User: Fold this.
Amino acid sequence: MPHPEIELSAATFPAEGADALVIAIPDLTGDGPGPAGLADLLPALDAIGFTGARNAFARVYAPGFSDTPLAVVGLGRRPDADAVRDAVGTAIRSFTGFDTIAVSVAAEVEDGWRAAAEGAALGGYAFAGYKSDSQDKKDKRRRASRVVVHAPEGADDAALAVVRAGAEAVALVKDLVSTPAEWQSPAQLADTAVETTQGLPIDVTVWDESGLAEAGFGGILGVGKGSDRPPRLVRLDYAPAGAERHIALVGKGITFDTGGLSLKPAASMVGMQEDMTGAAEVLAVVRAAAQLELPVRVTAWMCIADNMPSGRATRPGDVLVMADGTTVEVTNTDAEGRLVLADGLIAASRENPDVIVDVATLTGAMIVALGTRHTGVMGHGDAVDAFLRSADRTGELAWALPLPEHIAEELDSRVADMRNANVGNRAGGALFAGLFLQRFVGRTGEGDDAPRIPWVHLDIAGSSMSTGSAFGFTDKGPTGATVRALIDFVAAGGEVR
Assistant:
């Protein structure tokens, strides 16, 4: 999990010991005197036409200010924590070849130092990868291993711990999502869950294919039966003494998605090792909760399978029996994520948590609806509001979508209790998937009229991967979207705060 170590310093900036400097600067196009303390730097910025536009990055030669290599990055006209996080992330991602970088924010932003630390930690991540470049090329693109953030006296160490835990969680997700499927089978991903939680107060249980069959997890087994690499279900339980709230997290873990017998086109199959992002995220979040010693019980369920075509694979028209006995006609084997999540939601509901959140790269329809940066959010009342507030606090982009009752009618099957896809109908595909999952969320009491357990569905099909150019603290590739929001959501006990 290669991300820089973050330190705080209350010493006058720039202090000794850094190999390079970064200053985040607000808009300079107004009539005022400019940021305090930077009078010797402003002529150099004027000479290169740097105006402080948001995320504008430039290296500057300013010997009158400092002999240390220097870069500036813009905060724009209305600097806030989100602007600082993005700007510093841009700078640390772009300013390569230095071991230690010192960062200062030249604007009055509440908790600006924390946002700067977070941006540095996130922007400094780099996947080790499999490139066979020369050492010279590696040195030139090497990101800082240590970032010293200028902060006021008495900056909150607890807040910095949250920054570090969040950065490590995002880095873990990015590492796992970037690993080729050849080296990440369902069994290997389950082993990773065991290995990465060692030394933490987390109990881990793994169901192999025999255990899944005994427990009746027909959704996970049905998706995984076409592969030579059998499926797994992993339960991770962090249960601190005295916890008054219990949050369950359910993650889709398709380690490679061919579409099964409903085979994807070749171009759509590229990158389908990324379909296990949801499982990686719930693993990362429960680890962070344990590291931070949050006073909330968190149980994570990783629903893991390969979706492959073979003579054993589930066919369109087959009927699977979910863990609660619900029968599902499989009309599209490429709508497999909702089948494994159904079993996970049933298992999570049996423990009667206060709230359930599922996370999944679920539908291409979500990308059509919200593009590639917003996460689609569905679910029940206050739980949705609580997640949206966590997303806002952490600068994550998320948008609430409805679960229309008239679309629920389309779940009906002629031969089974439900069908998993409305083949041929492109309207509201992401909503159909959300309504399918809702059927498997347990109830808070006996009887069909009891309300369902508060539930949030996060469709990260678009937001989990940046397929274009890098932006802010985010590289091209996996983003770790919703990880930091989920950590905040857990810290709040899944309640509106």
Notes: The radius of gyration is 24 Å. The chain is about 35% helix and 20% strand.
